[in-house]
Amino acid sequence: MFRHFLGQPVECAGPSGQGSAGGHDLNYYSKCMLGGVIACGLTHTAVCPLDIVKCNMQANYTKYKSMKSSYQALVAESGGYSWMKLGWLPTLIGYSLQGFAKFGFYEIFKDVYGGVVGNLFGQDKTVTFRSVIWASASASAEFFADMLLCPFEAVKVRIQTSPKGTFPETFVPGWNKIKSTEGMNGFYKGIAPLWGRQIPYTIMKFVVFEKVVAIIFEDILKCKRDDCSKSFNLLMTFLSGYIAGVVCAVVSHPADSLFTAYNKKKTEGAFMEEIKKIYAEMPPGGLWKGLVARIFMIGTLTGLQWWIYDSWKTACGLKPTGS
Question: Which superfamily is assigned to 26-315 in CATH?
Answer without folding.
Answer: Mitochondrial carrier domain (1.50.40.10)
